Amino acid sequence: MQNDIIKMCLDWGCIMCGIVAFLSSNKVNTSNLLESLSRLEYRGYDSCGIAYINDDNSIYIRKSVGYVQDLKNDIANNGSRDTLSHVGIGHTRWATNGPVTIENAHPHTSGNICLVHNGIIENYEEIKNNLVEAGMCFYGNTDTEVIAKLIDHNKKIGMSFFNAFKACISKLQGSYSLVVIDSDTPNQMLCYKNVAPLVIGISDDSRSIYAASDILAFPQGIKRCIYAEDQDIIQVVSDGNTVSANFFDRNMKNIERNISQDIESAGEIHKDGFEDYMLKEIHEESGIVKHVYDKIKHKSLAHHRKICFVACGTSYYAAVLSSYYLEKYASVQARCEIASEFRYRSPIMERDCLYVFISQSGETLDTLYALKMVKAHGYNTFALVNNSHSAIAREADSYSNVMAGPEICVASTKAFVAQFASLMALFMPEKLDTNNISKNMDAVLQNNNDIKTLADKIISYKNIVFIGKCYHYAIAMEGALKMKELSYINAQAYCSGEMKHGPIATVDKDLCAIIFAPKDEFFDKTITTAEEITARKGNVVIITNKSNKEIIEQYSNIKSQSSHISYISDGDEMSYPFYEAIYVHLLAYNVAKKMGKNVDKPRNLAKSVTVE
Ligand code: AGP
């Protein structure tokens, strides 16, 4: 059975990108599509485009390589953004199939067909070859264009829009969601969902229906939605007054889907005066810790004696960090698994274990597939997410929301501290003094000038290592990841005891080691590692607590050779990770800013990693 599940996961392939579409009996300002795309940019931002049907039934289409802002500027410079239409679609891309070019950006067209697509079509080459033989010409090299051509071809051989769409779906293999419009049939919008997310939003007056990868794309005021299930065909039809969405399975049997009420679409998200979302989100960290801990601590999971955390990236580091405390203070056996590895191994699963899937987005494909695998074997699953409507929240037996609020910056910051605080609340409800922790996290923000000074020194290094022991090591991993993501400097993390087992060979005058060494039970061991680095001419940055100043200054080698000593507030092992987390977030931010990087949208990344 397990092999079947793994095969199923492999077959699902990779999916990314964001789509949005509307069909309305009112005329809608098409600039709304651009605003929706801005909110979907977390799904990819290498190119984007919109299309809508004009009053004369022609299709307006505009695409751009780069950010949604580039597309907005392009449209503004070439005519009005404020055009009205009854039907429109938009897309923001993270390239999987075909390089980043205008031709490969969505929407894709053929004849009167225009569509946006999120996912991959595995058999597109074969279909393309048949279409080429049938005389169709291609302008780009994506699998998506093949879908447009196939529907158009089906129409040209006499099928209605709906039948052409259905016939196309029956030929496509892969994991994808799709929204198609046809200027010959402007009162219809056809959608399909398989693995890649698709949600249908319904306006209160039932005069407009939206389709999108995420409810974030819906305009403010959309309170009702339907989460499409895999293999749903959705025919959205306007009779000129109301717009309805009919759901069918692949055998064209009508199906009923539940309507979720009172959803909260994001509407406008602002930077609140901050220069970037990242800086805003770092500033929210201290408030979130208190809020989430107080709210969640009543939902205890403390009766579970065995936990297996499964997550990726920063969410995985939150698991590693938490496991230290669960074992030490709650006597909970806590194992941590990287989702993309876990699902390809043959993990030994246990009945008395709670499998906890941590994901900010709730959409990470590796984590979702690992969850599906554990569930398919009948084990107990729990999700910790920042989006209650996400696939992971819906798939798990139960879930909790970390309540960090929308995290827009691709690099996760506030969600990390919210995940850690949530796990502490779920397993150790009375352990954190959140008032004090919040206050001292703010003190790190107030010390930003010191962090900026350090950032100035760091930008010249090509080799940075973050070093810590036990819980500090989890923060070291988080710090190294943030430094890599934002500055593109190749930073690594090591537990202090491991340096001598190999990594110390890389130490020379060009290495900068950032070492977490507040005065706790690990201090002496960690300082020994720092000494070993200075002895080999490496540069060290020590992050320690204020009361430790006199002690640290006695280490003459460190003091004389150190590039920097930074001080955080005095604390204990329950509070230091919070101070260190906000510190490394701010450090990576400052380094990247000084290097002139786009901190909110680092190169090659996407916020929601829905690829394998
Ligand atoms: C964090 O800064 C990263 N962008 C990334 O590692 C992220 O944490 C990872 O992709 C997991 O995402 P999730 O929490 O949404 O599942």
Topology:
Layout (H helix, E strand, L loop, with lengths): L1 H11 L5 E12 L1 H10 L6 E7 L5 E7 L2 H10 L6 E10 L14 E3 L2 E9 L2 H10 L9 H14 L4 H11 L2 E9 L5 E7 L4 E4 L5 E5 L11 E4 L4 E7 L4 E6 L5 E2 L21 H20 L9 E6 L1 H17 L3 E6 H4 L10 E7 L5 H12 L3 E6 L5 H5 L2 E4 L12 H14 L6 H13 L1 H11 L4 E6 L2 H17 L2 E6 L15 E6 L6 H12 L4 E7 L3 H5 L2 H6 L2 E5 L7 H19 L18
Parallel strand pairs: 15-16, 15-17, 17-18, 18-19, 20-21, 20-22, 22-23, 23-24
Antiparallel strand pairs: 1-4, 1-10, 2-3, 2-4, 5-6, 6-7, 7-8, 8-12, 9-10, 9-11, 12-13, 13-14
Helix pairs in contact: 1-10, 4-5, 5-6, 7-12, 7-13, 7-19, 8-12, 8-15, 13-19, 14-19, 15-19
The protein binds 2-deoxy-2-amino glucitol-6-phosphate.
How would you portray this structure in words?
The structure is a single chain. The chain is α/β, with parallel strands linked by helices. Helix content is 36%, strand content 25%. The structure holds 2-deoxy-2-amino glucitol-6-phosphate. 2-deoxy-2-amino glucitol-6-phosphate is lined by residues 312-315, 359-361, 364, 367, 410-412, 485, 609. Residues 312-315, 359-361, 364, 367, 410-412, 485, 609 line the site of 2-deoxy-2-amino glucitol-6-phosphate.
